[in-house]
Amino acid sequence: MKTILVVDDNPDVINSLKIGLEDTTLEYRILGAENGQKCLEILNNNIMPDIILLDIMMPQMSGWEVFDRIKKDPLLSTIPIIFLTARTDRIAKNAGNFLGDDYIEKPFDIIDLKKRIEIVFRNKKSSAISNKK
Fold this sequence. Notes:
Layout: E1 2-7, H1 11-22, E2 28-33, H2 36-44, E3 51-54, H3 63-72, E4 81-85, H4 90-99, E5 102-105, H5 110-132
Parallel strand pairs: 1-2, 1-3, 3-4, 4-5
Helix pairs in contact: 2-3
């Protein structure tokens, strides 16, 4: 079972992902964090998700800041991050696609999201195999 950490200030997003991904399949366990600080607390408590779905627009600490802190930590930097956001401007899209493993706009289709999560997992697995050679 793979663990997905959803970081979003909207509890409805976390709940819909819990229902759409966790409850429909036994492949995923969904953890939720309502803000960037809670995300970092979870990670600092040695809970290592397989992937993070990260909102960009959050109060107190933006998704960009959370991303930077995660990527600066050598123990956390290999966790794939998918930006899942309502930001649709070109600058955010370009930055999100360049920095993250994917960039998905809200509202999203749960089936498409699951496919894109699986692509990130496959890419991470093949990258790990390539690095061993």
